[in-house]
Amino acid sequence: MTIRVLVADDQDLVRTGLAMILDAQPGIEVIAQAADGLEAVELARRQRPDVCLLDIRMPGLDGIAVTRELAGPGVQDPIPIVVITTFDLDEYVYGALKAGARGFLLKDAGPDLLVQALQAAANGDALIAPKITARLLAAFAAPTTPPQPLDPLTTREEEVLLAAAAGRTNAEIAADLHISLSTVKTHLTSLMLKIGARNRVELAIWTYETNRIPR
Fold it and tell me: Name one GO biological process term (predicted).
């Protein structure tokens, strides 16, 4: 299946470069490019890409606002969003994750990681760049500790949670824990129900907010 992607970035060279990289990858087609947030929302609603790749800082509407418009709470038929940013300590990224983004990357991410993030988002999963997961989420996690779920997490769920928060894919978690891929998906579904998370990114945020990984 070809993944249809919208790329939004206000810098022409960056936007064109990302589009060229993605178009060169098998199974990915860039169907639209936007130079600002308002154009990104309009094009996304009209062309319904499988995934939107958004810069965090854009005129008109920034990446957070665009994410909220296309994938935020209450949005009917949300479009998967991957946020890409220049800075590894960018306060806007945490806001984008809260707004509904399924993942984020740095702009120096190689083509392989970029493709993996888009594939994960298109498949209902999420990918957070492993090298910035702990530092970024820990830096911008809310200072208050959210309540624990009424139904406590099992030992295996805790293991799956930590692995997901570290940016491991479902296949990697299955291999690490010596369980089947379907079992991983079952645990992730259970975790989301217990915690009230909409996706794996929110699972990761909750993991840091509850101090399961040292800040």
Answer: regulation of DNA-templated transcription
